[in-house]
C-alpha cells in the first residue's frame, strides 16, 4: 500500500509537469493546427534560462521561475513571428517540418551555450517529509502547488478575459471565430505567450525534480503529446486530466516493467486512445 | 593521394546509403504525403536484423547465425517491412500529423530497446564483427568493391522506384497526397494504398540499414542518433525536392556535402570549443532547413518542374506527330 501511495505521489508530480507542457501544446495545436514539435525544446529552454539566474545571481529557483517563463514566452513569440508566420499560408504540415527544425536549432543552441552534460539547480540532499511511510520532498510540494496556481490563473484567464474567450473560440472553430471579428494574429501571439510560458514552468519543475540536460524536453515530448491527445486537441482542461493520467500510468507501470520503458507506456496509451476515441476524452478537434 | 581517394570512396558510400534512405522517405512523404519521423528506427531495425543474421556465433547478443550477407539483407527488408505493417495498420487511418507523433514513439521505443535489451542487441556495447561483403575475396580493395556494389543497388532501386512513381500505382499515391477525398471517391482503397507506400518506404530504409551495418561492420545505439539521422534525411529530401526521386538523390549529395563542409568549419574552431562542434553543425543544418522552407519550399528539383518538363516534351512530340500527320493528310488530299 505504501508503495502504491509513493508511486501515486511520483505520478502526480510527473503528471503536473506533463500537464503544463500539454496545455500549451494542446492550445497551439488547436489554434494553429499543427503539432508543435519544438515544444519539448521550449521546456528545455525555460529550465536553462532559470538556471542562468540561479547560478549567476544565486537566486532561488522560485525567483528565477518568472524570468524563465517570461524569457521563454518571448522566445516562442519571436520564433512564431520570424518563422512560423511566414509559413502559415502553406500547408500545416510544412509548419510541422519547420518546428522539427526549430527543435533541433533550440537544442543545439542550448548545448552550445551550456554544454552537453547534466546540471542541477541545487546540490545536496533534500530531507523528505514522511507521511504514513510515504516520502514527499519539499520540491514535490512546490511543483504540485505551483502547477495548481498556474492552472487556476489559466482558468481565470480563459474564462474571464476577452482574449481568453477569443482563444477558446479560435480553438473551437477558427473560421467562425474570424467571422465574429476576432483578430487572429494577436490571439496567436497570446497563444504562444501562454504556451511558451507554461512550457518553461514545466521545464523548471522538471529540472527541480530531476536534472537539466539539453534533451530533457525532447525526452518528455512524447508523454506531453500523449497527454494532449488523451485530453482532446485544443482542450486545455482535457490536457490537465491527460497529463495526470499519463504521469500516474508511467509511474504505476514501473511495478510491472522496467522503468526505462516509461515513455513506451505513454505511447501505448496514446495509440490506444487514437484507435478507440481519436478525439480524446473531452471530444477535442475532430480528426 | 591514396588518402584522398580512400576518403572519397568512403564518403561516396555514406552518401549512397543516405541516398537510399532519402528514396525510401520519398515514397512515404514525397509521393504519398505520409509523415514519418521514425526514419532512424527502421534504419536501425534493418542494421540490427542483418547483423544478428550474419555475425559468427556469439554470446554477446542474440543470434550469430553466420548466414550469408544477402540473406541478412533480405531479412532486414522483411523485418522492417513487418514492423512497418503493424505500425501502419494502427496509425495510417489517422491524419498525417498523428502519424508523425506516432512515429516519434516508434523511434523512441526502438532507441530504448536497443539500449536495454542487451541479450538481443548487445546493449550499449553494440554489435561488432558484422561481416563485410567481398572481404575475403578482395582483401584491401574492399571499400571500392562495396561502393560499386552500392551504386549498382542504388541504380536498380532508383529505376524501380521511378517506374513505381510513373505507374498507375504511383498516380494513386499522388492522388491521396493531393486530395484524399477525391481519391476515395474514385473508388481507391486509400488506407490500403497508404499502407503499401509506408511498408515499401520502410523496407527501403531497412535495406539501407543493412548496407550500413555491412559497410561499417560495427553497430551500436550511438550510431543511430535518431533525431540527427532522421533530420538529415528529411533535410536532404526537402532540399532536393520531395516527390522527385532525382531530387531526393541530388539532395542527399548536396546536404551531405554541406554536412561534411560544416565539419571542416568547426574543425577550425579553438580547441576548447571543439567538444561543442557537433551542436554547431546541427544548428547550421537546422537554419539551412528553415531558409529552404521559407525561400524555396519545393526544393532544388521541384516535382512540378519535373512535370512541366515532361508535359513540354510530350507537347513537342505531339506537335511533331501532328505536323507529320498534317503534311501526310495534305499530300493525300493533293492526290
TrEMBL record, chain A:
GO CC annotation terms, alphabetical: plasma membrane
Topological type in the membrane: Multi-pass membrane protein
One Pfam family, short name: BPD_transp_2
Gene Ontology MF, one: L-phenylalanine transmembrane transporter activity
Main location (coarse class): membrane
Entry keyword set: Amino-acid transport, Cell inner membrane, Cell membrane, Membrane, Transmembrane, Transmembrane helix, Transport
UniProt keyword annotation of Manganese present: no
Stored InterPro entries: ABC_transp_permease, BCAA_transport_permease
GO annotation terms (biological process): D-alanine transmembrane transport; L-alanine transport; L-isoleucine import across plasma membrane
Locations listed in the record: Cell membrane
TM segment ranges: 7-32, 47-78, 90-114, 140-158, 187-208, 220-249, 261-283
PANTHER family documented for this protein: BRANCHED-CHAIN AMINO ACID TRANSPORT SYSTEM PERMEASE PROTEIN LIVH, HIGH-AFFINITY BRANCHED-CHAIN AMINO ACID TRANSPORT SYSTEM PERMEASE PROTEIN LIVH
Similarity remark: Belongs to the binding-protein-dependent transport system permease family. LivHM subfamily.
Protein name: Branched-chain amino acid ABC transporter permease
Amino acid at each position: 500500500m505504501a508503495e502504491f501511495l509513493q508511486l501515486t505521489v511520483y505520478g502526480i508530480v510527473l503528471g503536473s509537469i506533463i500537464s503544463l507542457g500539454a496545455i500549451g501544446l494542446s492550445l497551439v495545436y488547436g489554434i494553429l493546427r499543427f503539432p508543435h514539435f519544438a515544444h519539448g525544446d521550449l521546456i528545455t529552454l525555460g529550465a536553462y534560462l532559470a538556471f542562468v539566474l540561479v547560478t549567476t545571481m544565486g537566486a532561488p529557483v522560485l525567483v528565477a521561475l518568472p524570468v524563465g517563463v517570461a524569457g521563454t514566452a518571448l522566445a516562442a513569440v519571436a520564433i512564431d513571428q520570424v518563422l512560423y508566420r511566414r509559413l502559415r499560408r502553406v500547408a500545416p504540415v510544412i509548419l510541422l517540418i519547420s518546428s522539427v527544425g526549430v527543435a533541433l536549432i533550440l537544442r543545439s543552441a542550448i548545448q552550445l551555450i551550456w554544454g552537453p552534460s547534466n546540471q542541477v539547480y541545487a546540490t545536496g540532499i533534500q530531507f523528505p517529509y514522511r507521511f504514513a511511510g510515504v516520502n514527499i520532498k519539499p520540491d514535490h510540494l512546490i511543483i504540485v502547488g505551483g502547477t495548481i496556481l498556474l492552472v487556476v490563473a489559466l482558468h481565470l484567464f480563459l474564462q474571464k478575459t476577452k482574449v481568453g474567450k477569443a482563444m477558446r473560440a479560435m480553438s473551437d472553430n477558427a473560421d467562425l471565430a474570424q467571422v465574429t471579428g476576432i483578430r487572429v494574429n494577436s490571439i496567436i501571439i497570446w497563444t504562444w505567450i501562454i504556451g511558451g510560458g507554461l512550457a518553461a514552468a514545466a521545464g523548471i519543475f522538471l529540472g527541480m525534480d530531476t536534472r537539466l540536460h539539453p534533451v530533457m524536453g525532447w525526452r518528455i515530448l512524447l508523454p506531453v503529446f500523449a497527454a494532449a491527445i488523451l485530453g482532446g486537441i485544443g482542450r486545455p482542461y482535457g490536457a490537465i486530466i491527460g497529463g495526470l493520467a499519463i504521469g500516474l500510468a508511467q509511474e504505476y507501470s514501473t511495478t510491472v516493467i522496467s522503468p526505462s520503458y516509461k515513455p513506451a507506456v505513454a505511447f501505448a496509451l496514446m495509440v490506444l486512445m487514437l484507435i478507440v476515441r481519436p478525439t480524446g476524452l473531452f471530444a477535442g478537434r475532430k480528426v | 593521394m591514396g588518402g584522398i581517394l580512400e576518403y572519397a570512396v568512403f564518403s561516396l558510400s555514406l552518401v549512397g546509403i543516405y541516398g537510399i534512405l532519402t528514396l525510401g522517405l520519398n515514397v512515404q512523404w514525397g509521393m504519398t504525403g505520409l509523415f514519418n519521423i521514425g526514419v532512424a528506427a527502421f534504419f536501425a531495425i534493418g542494421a540490427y536484423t542483418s547483423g544478428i543474421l550474419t555475425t559468427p556465433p556469439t554470446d554477446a547478443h542474440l543470434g550469430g547465425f553466420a548466414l550469408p550477407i544477402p540473406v541478412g539483407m533480405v531479412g532486414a527488408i522483411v523485418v522492417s517491412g513487418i514492423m512497418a505493417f503493424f505500425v501502419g495498420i494502427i496509425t495510417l487511418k489517422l491524419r498525417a500529423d498523428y502519424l508523425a507523433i506516432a512515429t516519434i514513439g516508434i523511434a523512441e521505443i526502438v532507441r530504448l530497446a536497443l539500449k536495454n535489451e542487451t541479450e538481443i542487441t548487445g546493449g550499449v556495447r553494440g554489435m561488432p564483427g558484422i561481416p563485410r561483403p567481398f572481404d575475403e575475396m578482395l582483401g584491401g580493395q574492399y571499400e571500392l568493391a562495396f561502393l560499386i556494389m552500392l551504386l549498382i543497388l542504388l541504380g536498380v532501386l532508383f529505376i524501380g522506384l521511378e517506374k513505381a512513381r510513373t505507374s498507375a500505382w504511383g498516380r494513386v499515391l499522388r492522388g491521396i497526397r493531393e486530395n484524399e477525398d477525391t481519391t476515395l471517391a474514385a473508388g481507391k482503397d486509400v488506407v490500403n494504398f497508404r499502407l503499401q507506400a509506408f511498408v515499401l518506404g520502410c523496407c527501403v530504409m531497412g535495406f539501407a540499414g543493412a548496407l550500413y551495418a555491412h559497410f561499417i561492420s560495427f553497430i551500436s545505439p550511438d550510431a543511430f542518433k535518431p533525431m540527427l539521422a532522421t533530420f538529415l534525411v528529411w533535410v536532404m529530401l526537402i532540399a532536393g525536392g520531395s516527390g522527385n526521386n532525382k531530387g531526393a538523390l541530388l539532395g542527399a549529395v548536396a546536404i551531405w556535402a554541406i554536412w561534411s563542409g560544416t565539419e571542416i568549419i568547426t574543425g577550425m574552431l579553438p580547441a576548447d570549443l571543439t567538444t561543442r562542434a557537433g551542436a554547431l553543425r546541427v544548428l547550421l543544418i537546422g537554419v539551412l532547413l528553415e531558409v529552404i522552407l521559407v525561400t524555396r519550399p519545393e526544393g532544388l528539383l521541384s516535382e512540378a518542374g519535373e512535370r512541366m518538363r515532361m508535359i513540354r516534351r510530350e507537347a513537342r512530340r505531339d506537335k511533331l506527330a501532328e505536323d507529320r500527320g498534317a503534311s501526310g493528310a495534305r499530300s493525300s488530299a493533293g492526290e
